[in-house]
Amino acid sequence: MKKLDYGELEEMVRDLQARVEKGITIEQDLINTKNELDAELNRFRLMQRYSSDALKAENLDAFCELTVEYFVEIFNLPRILFLERDENEKQQVLAHFGLKEYEDILDSTIDESMIAAGKNSIIREGDGRYSLIQKFGLQEAIICPICDKENRCTGIVVAGLKAAEIIYYGSIEEKVSDSFALMTQKVGGHLQILRVNDRLKQGIAEATQELESQAEELKRSNKDLEQFAYVTSHDLKAPLRNIASFVQLLNRKYEDQFDEEAKEYMLFVLGGVRRLNNLIKDLLQYSRVNRIDVGLEHIDLHDVVDVVKTNLMEQAQRESAQIHIKHLPMLRGNYSQMVQLMQNIISNAIKFNSEGIPPLIEIDGGETPREVYFSVKDNGIGIDAKHTDKIFSIFQRLHSPDEYEGTGIGLSICKRIVERHKGKIWFESEPKKGATFFVQIPKNLKRI
Amino acid sequence: MLHFFSASTGIVNSRKAIKYCLETALVTPGDLSCDLIVIHASIGHDFDQLLDEANQLSPQAIVVGCTGAGVVGKEGSNEQMRALAVMAIKADHKSEFTVTYCDNIRGHNSYEQAHVMAKTLKTHNDQVNMIMLLASGIDIAADQAIKGIEDVFGAETPIFGGTSSDNSKAISSFQFFNQHILERGAVMVGFADPTLELVSGATHGNVPIGMPFTVTQSEGNQVFELDEQEAWPFLMKKLHLPPTTHPRETIAIAGLGERIQDELIEEYGNKMILRVIVKISEDHKSFYMPVDCPVGTQLWLTKRDEQRTFDGLDVLIERLKDDMGSRKLAAVFHTDCVARGRMLFNKISKAEILKHMQKPLVGGEDIPWLGIYGFGEFTLLGGKNHFHNYTTSIYALVRS
Per the confidence metrics, is the pTM higher than 0.95? Predict the structure, then answer.
């Protein structure tokens, strides 16, 4: 082997050192390449996270804010403009980041020429569109339209840097174009979903508002009617009492002078006055159910039925009615209204009897963990199922006054009382087979 | 007694980011009051917004901080354009810390500026027992700054911290003091909590390559000639790069090694202390070192050795744990060189480095941690204050 002299050795050392030193730069290049790949991976990871976060955005404002912040984070571009464009190509700024000082002009800076290519592009000095991005202080920008299915531009995202920022972060690299376009496409998709959701929400809100307004109007109208009924019936009471008194006086004083025809007329008048009096009385009761504040107490329904039986004694005796009581629960309610309720149901049970068959009425009741209930069963003429909806409505009569006297208000009062007690009233019946009315009232009522 | 709380985030909106950090660190969203906030932010954040929001959220707090190429918190590292890490400090007594700043520290006046700042601290509080220094990283003679402080507080008062950086471009870096954003400034925090002690250390994993070259002409920290050739072109030639190259392109590959005293080698785990070049003369002929570089100084080009990087870190952490003994860790400040971030390590290696650092040191506890990727590190070596580059420097504040 040839012996090397010092000069040759020194040359070899220098050569080796040069190779090692060159190795440093090569190693650094490899690290840079790896970091670029890391950055690209990170971009896609962030885009994935964006998709998930965007779905959670509560409203359009939150979504837009989130979107521009993600653009900054994903692309390391500190200035973002996010515009929406309607069918008339009118633009509005949805959000921006780092462009506050240009807020007043942002909606008018982007014109058709900037997105004419229909795809994303990078604008730098020398580009014909450069002066447009300069208007809001940008030296470089990447601009990408958001397109719908028909390829119509529905929005635009612009991301860029000021001159001073390029010194730190460098120029926008062409290689981000694809991921920028992908991100913009995602934004478009989410914006569309949000818009549809918004429209649905708005529709629901409008419909709800309409319903609420109708309900309110109905409530107000009902209240007016009640007030009208109350005032009218109350004011009618006095003149009617006068009419009744004078007609009775007239009848008593001149009865002898009336011929048969006049007597018959007088009976019509007296009957009319009585029916009108009953109607006014019932109307007053009906309107009073909800008008007045009533207290609640623990009520034994046996007591209620006893009072009702006394009140209806004359009617019951006239019709030879029998009333049997099985079991009746205690309940919490308003005593007077419970008497009224029970009285109206029992009175109907006596009244609507089958010809030639004395009324037989069975009253029964019980309770569940949450409610108490009772029923009044009769053997009367029954009710056709087709009248189910009609029967509890005010002034709805199934029979003419000639057949069965009444005002058509009694069951409406019952319904009102039960509803005020937050309960339910219904019946089961077949024509000629009697009817059973059921009432269910919740336990532990605090107030009505 | 000083109490420490930390958090970090990648939230890009500066106001939201600082709010998130303070709320997360201080836990109680309704009460963000504290006495001192140390902020580390990457260069893309809106500093005006950061400082204004910090002031609004915690009006009585003094805010200090600086920029870096990235930040490190107990949550991990983040070198994104907008990364933020915060250490919020509550003091039982106002006298437990004192703060000052200057707005123009450069290579030629580093001693004077640091001296004035140190005197201010001492005037405010002569019980200061450790000093955190966050200074501009582009143009500072760090050894002169250390000397300026030591001439006031003595060489035994430990100095820790680092120099600010941008995103490794070596253009401009920033420091914060309350609402002031400084470009060539420095902030100094004097800690005077008698229950706290500093346990610190630094490590790097670079090895020298080939033959050294000698400084043949210099003035202060400006090196004009190496081996009697124009310094910058000489160095660039060695790296197969043109002399027009900006120093930012060389940070990762042009770490210059300077031999340390033999007695420090064991503690440092390395024969070389490293120097980074972030500034050159306008004519691209000379360059500036971060410390004085007298004629005759021998410098080596160095190369990162991954195995030594990890091994050195393990050794450092073990030593710190030994030094801490049974004392309780109150908080960790941490300065890493920009070149130890993504510039030299990929994401996985970087995460691995942090794991080697944080996990054994905090031992599963929730210890406040504030770190930054800066241009340089102020860290004790052999019990004396030194300025380093390319290191991981850990400053563990332990409760005695």
Answer: no
